[in-house]
Design a protein that fits this description.
With 320 residues, this protein is an alpha/beta fold. Helix content is 43%, strand content 12%. It has helices at 2-12, 15-20, 49-62, 71-75, 95-107, 117-121, 128-138, 158-174, 180-191, 207-212, 234-252, 267-275, 307-315, and strands spanning 30-34, 64-65, 84-90, 111-115, 143-146, 152-155, 217-221, 257-259, 280-282, 301-302. Helix 1 packs across helix 13 and helix 7 (128-138) packs antiparallel against helix 8. The longest helix has 19 residues, at 234-252. The protein is globular. The model has no long low-confidence stretch (mean pLDDT 90).
């Protein structure tokens, strides 16, 4: 079965078969989510530059990349032969300007980049998950006792580090946002890693760099400090949305689009986003968007690892 699915994905990516699949393809607009593109010296997860280029070339030949202002219309246009696709990026990483944007500009593909404004304004700020990754890979200890799993011991070989990296992320996301600093401090202690050992160069674009990609990039809100919006109260929700929108408006113009950090939303979060002046907000639930879409909970696919998987996602077969 796995082999057959692999063959199906590879077949769909070929032009004649992609065109034939239009007969069974669901109508609607797909939204793809990227974070980092290119290589980096710190081992962060990313889509390689050559993979991103192949995916964008395939999209430009087989689909219709759409601009954010055309997104709602694209959701209801019913085009199955060249289905509409919106490209989005989360977190405003600098490799967007250095690696991804030149490819998008060459192919004339528009995109949205959602930025958490604290990290744009504070060059010393680092996303907590990047700090986790750096600490896990920097540790020289042979093993770690997982304090969030009653002291379970994990050997820090490659597989063990990958497990710890992902497991602590899930743990942090499961806890109140206020516990995050203490959890990170305990993790560094458990790994015997000093904060100075994970102090790296700026990772997020500056406002000047954001303006440099303005020709084809719409900047969207992503809160100010990147909390899980489903885990903070009403006052904090309103402050996060207002601070984010005000700072973007001050530097490049008022944004109309928003993405919930990690896709975590709630009725209260949607109200805060709507009342804060945004009329289009994106989560991370997979699927196509059509006339039934909740415009404050737009569906997105995480970017796949290769063109074959991309074709499979956009064919609609992955979720039939």
């Amino acid at each position: 079965m796995v082999h057959l699915k692999r063959v199906l994905k590879a077949t769909l990516a070929r032009s004649p078969f992609w065109e034939l699949s239009a007969a069974v393809r669901a109508a609607g607009c797909a939204v793809l989510t990227y974070h980092r593109v290119g290589t980096n010296p710190h081992g962060f997860k990313h889509v390689p530059e050559d993979t991103f280029r192949r995916q964008m070339l395939w999209l430009s030949r087989h689909c219709r990349p759409v601009a954010p202002h055309d997104f709602r219309e694209a959701c209801v246009d019913g085009n199955r032969r060249r289905p509409p696709v919106l490209i989005t990026f989360d977190d405003g990483y600098r490799d967007y300007r250095r690696v991804a944007y030149p490819i998008l500009r060459e192919l004339r593909i528009p995109a949205i980049n959602f930025v958490a404004t604290q990290f744009v304004e504070d060059g010393e700020a680092r996303f907590w998950w990047d700090q986790v990754d750096l600490a896990v890979w920097a540790s020289t200890r042979p093993a770690i006792e997982l304090f969030w799993r009653d002291g379970e011991r994990v050997t820090l070989d490659h597989a063990g580090r990958e497990r710890v990296r992902m497991d602590v992320r899930r743990y942090v996301w499961s806890r109140p946002d206020s516990e995050k600093p203490a959890t990170l401090a305990r993790l560094l202690d458990a790994l015997d890693v000093r904060p100075a050992a994970i102090a790296i160069e700026r990772q997020v674009m500056t406002w000047e760099e954001i303006r440099d990609v303005g020709e084809l990039t719409t900047i969207g809100g992503h809160t100010h400090t990147h909390p899980l919006m489903s885990r903070v109260d009403g006052d904090r929700l309103r402050e996060e949305v207002a601070a984010c929108r005000e700072r973007i408006a001050r530097h490049i113009g008022a944004p109309a689009t928003f993405a919930y950090p990690a896709g975590a939303t709630s009725d209260a979060a949607k109200r805060a986003v709507r009342d804060g002046g945004f009329d289009l907000a994106f989560c991370t639930a997979p699927g196509l968007n059509d006339r039934r879409t909740d415009w404050l909970a737009v569906r997105r696919f995480n970017a796949p690892r290769d063109v074959d998987r991309l074709a499979y996602l956009l064919s609609g077969l992955a979720y039939h």
